Amino acid sequence: MMPTKSILKNSLKALLATAALVAGPALASTHALPYSFTPDTGNLASVQRGARNYMSYCSGCHSMRHLRYSRMAQDLQIPEDLLKANLMFTSDKVGDHILSAMPSDAAKNWFGQPPPDLTLEARYRGADWVYSYLLSFYVDSSRPLGTNNLVLPNASMPNVLWELQGLQVEKTAAHEGEAAHHEGSPFEAVTQGKLSAEEYQKWVADTANFMAYAAEPGRAQRVSTGFKVLLFLFVFTILAYLMKREWWRDVH
Q: How many CB atoms lie within 10 A of CB 13?
């Protein structure tokens, strides 16, 4: 007969293993980034704003071919009339996948390669990477389009958000190769954008939250179900232990 302590120990191991499965793969990068960010896909208002940002500024070049408009509308509680009026620019069918309007051949001629599909970008690189990337464009006269990116040097993507953020240059410390993570921003503003620095950071955070959601739309439901399963297993373990004690009380 297995000792009671062993039963409880094995049950605890099973619960911890289940918790690890519920949590899923971490959306975090292992390399140093200039900014820190933790996605919050449970913040519905933020993810909704991120969907607006993405469809208005990103979907012209980048598709999300693994996500349908209908799934996005259902998960983010967006009415169909608002979806069609404000978020659907390449299709009038809510069941379609989110595709970009840019022809891949033309994009290859313009940028050297077609813009990548971004459905799984936040899962592959990490939402913190996306956040840092969108904050890290800076003026670089040596580049064909006049800008570079600290997170992805020599990126083909132009700084399409400069009107919102404004233009910035690297601080001297960044040029001298000091630590990649700064207490403040590694950049100095040159021109003011339509948004303040705080407003733009919030704009980027909303966009990164949406991309984290798009990379795994079922995550919130899976986590909710997982916690219910963990609660059931915890209660069941206690009941099983108490039942075992009652059954074996006379034997001991």
A: 10
C-alpha–C-alpha distance, residues 48 and 209, integer Å: 9
CATH tag for 40-217 (out of 1.20.1560.10, 3.30.70.380, 3.40.630.30, 1.10.760.10): 1.10.760.10
| Residue 182 labelled as part of a binding site | no
pLDDT in tens, 123-181: 999 999 999 999 999 999 999 989 999 999 999 899 999 999 999 999 864 445 454 44
Find the mean pLDDT for residues 73-92.
93
Instruction: Establish whether 58 is an annotated binding residue.
Output: yes
Cα 115 from Cα 121, distance rounded (Å): 12
Global pTM? 0.75
CA–CA separation, 39 vs 59, rounded Å? 21
Residue 62, marked binder: yes
**Residue type at position 5:** K
Domain spans of the chain? 1-26+219-252, 40-217
Strand partners, 19: none
- How far from chain centre, in Å, is Cα 174? 26
pLDDT of residue 86 exceeding 50? yes
Check residue 156 and report its DSSP letter: S
CB atoms within 10 A of CB 150: 21
171, burial (CB in 10 Å: exposed 0-12, middle 13-18, buried 19+)? middle
Distance CA 45, CA 84 (A): 19
